[in-house]
Amino acid sequence: METLLFLVDGRTPNQLRPLTCSRNVLNRIHGSASWSQGDTKVVAAIYGPKSGTKKGENLEKACIEVIWKPKTGQSGKPEKEYEMILRRTLQSICLLNIHPNTTTSVIVRVVNDDDALLPCAINASCAALVDVGIPLNHLAVAICCGVVESGFVILDPSKIEEQKMKAFVHLVFPNSVLSVLPEESLHVGDEAKEHGLISSVTHGRMSVDDYLHCLERGRAASAKLSAFLRKNLQSQVPSNT
Amino acid sequence: MEAANPSGDLSAEMEVDAFRRLFPLRFFDRHLVESIRPDGRPLGRARDTTLALGAVASADGSALAKIGSTTMLAAIKLEVMTPATESPDEGSIAIDFHMPPICSPMVRPGRPAEAAPVISKQLSDTILSSGVINLKELCLISGKAAWMAYLYPEERNNMNLKVDKLWNFMITIVDIYCLDADGALFDAALLSAIAAFSHLEIPVVSLDEDGRVVILSQDEGLKTSNEPVNAEKRKLTLSDIPFSLTCILYKNYILADPTAEEESVMETLITVVLDSSYQLVSLYKPGGSVLAYTSALQDCIALTRHRVQELKKILDEAMSEMEVD
């Protein structure tokens, strides 16, 4: 049927690359985290909240500033775009009214780029925000999906795999909810609250149905990623005894 | 909703303009409940769009696009270049988007708008991903030279002087200037770029003694002894043309084609780019406090489909007007 059923490193199309996440990796920084998916590794460092906002920003809300440092070379237009997407994504998950008139700086440093850079950075920044202790209303879980010519969807492609694809999509979802409330209150219309999309960036051309398949696969993957995050972030809480 | 807020009493007495500035969300809410927007449009309708091709006479291709008050001017200049070795039969396109201070009070001479590089990159990604321009068409003589499309500001006319010194260097420079920023910047910029490409005519070229490719202007063609490589000016064939629509998601409402005021108040934007065969070229949602569920996404895509038909008609009309001249 489909010859590309096994990816270069022997994964099935539904498997993510090996994930590692560690918090508090840098000294003298208010909060930091590193996240790697396969060979892509990103470190996020956060300073803040510091007093004062940038000129022209809303004084009643906290301001988030993102600086993206690429692995090599100067910061150019792609970096500015990543900064803007990351900033708007983080603004939507933070509770901005709690610390008005402050600035939180998020510095993202790319250590290694083997594709899925933006999702990695979003996951790393989220973990770093948890490390700093900034109040969030939910976490942002980011995933990359690739679409092959025949319409088949592959999760988390690496650079080699990406070249064979006609399109790929970066999706960011809120994390899945573990709650004592009854099921119905968590639904909005027919859909579970955690299936809403925070951000989406696509490259390449695909049909609308392909995109909707990517959304479904992305949601399923985000549930797995949320479970991973929950386990990882909980285990590092220091005990009080 | 009206109970605990102090403005409840004032709203009856305040002037509309003051209310609009002080309580923008409430102002919009009042309109949206009646399914209408402050400028009188229904929620799903885009603003009036006009296109004028050939706005810049000195450029090889140009267009002026207006969506409501948002105005974009795109101009294309062509220069010869030696193609890259890894793709010897392809030209290239460089797109640049500028927001000069004329476009908005938010942009001042010392502080470039932060939206400019982002939209610039989005535009080049969209035009390249959609495959609307076949890069092989930009080739003059296979392997020898190709046209590279540059988007470049009109002011740099002295670039023409450099062309003579550069060897086989042809670049298609596409420059898009925002003349008035009133929301939906990406839509207007994409429309103006596509219209400029459809207006573009590749001029006649020939090889001179050293094997360099030179552009022949109209009168030169008769005088020189060199054979022109291409007999007449030709146009690029554009395959499926991408068109876009930006929508705002606010509570349960979807507002198509926002103005700058709507964008600043309700921040969640989603831009859908579909090409003329309704394939999805891009679905861009950069964060935002409102989560997009599948039903909302499908509504946005349906609105964009409708818009693609409108824009196609407008582009065809503008092109047929050009041909009549």
From TrEMBL, chain A:
Signal peptide interval: none
Keyword Hydrolase assigned: yes
UniProt entry keywords in alphabetical sequence: Exonuclease, Exosome, Hydrolase, Nuclease, Nucleus, RNA-binding, rRNA processing
Organism encoding this protein: Dillenia turbinata
Family: Belongs to the RNase PH family.
Name of the protein described by the UniProt record: Exosome complex exonuclease RRP46 homolog
Domain Exoribonuclease phosphorolytic: 15-135
SUPFAM superfamilies referenced in this protein's UniProt entry, alphabetically: Ribonuclease PH domain 2-like, Ribosomal protein S5 domain 2-like
Source organism superkingdom: Eukaryota
GO annotation, biological process: nuclear mRNA surveillance; poly(A)-dependent snoRNA 3'-end processing; rRNA catabolic process; rRNA processing; U4 snRNA 3'-end processing
Pfam families hit by this protein: RNase_PH
Molecular function in Gene Ontology: exonuclease activity; RNA binding
PANTHER family: EXOSOME COMPLEX COMPONENT, EXOSOME COMPLEX COMPONENT RRP46
UniProtKB/TrEMBL annotation, chain B:
GO biological process, one term: nuclear mRNA surveillance
Keywords for the protein's UniProt record, in alphabetical order: Cytoplasm, Exosome, Nucleus, RNA-binding, rRNA processing
Domain of life the protein comes from: Eukaryota
One Pfam family here: RNase_PH
Molecular function per GO: mRNA 3'-UTR AU-rich region binding
Exoribonuclease phosphorolytic domain: residues covered: 46-203, 240-292
Annotated Gene Ontology cellular component terms: cytoplasmic exosome (RNase complex); nuclear exosome (RNase complex); nucleolus
Subcellular location: Cytoplasm; Nucleus, Nucleolus
Principal location: cytoplasm
Membership in a protein family: Belongs to the RNase PH family.
Protein name: Ribosomal RNA-processing protein 43
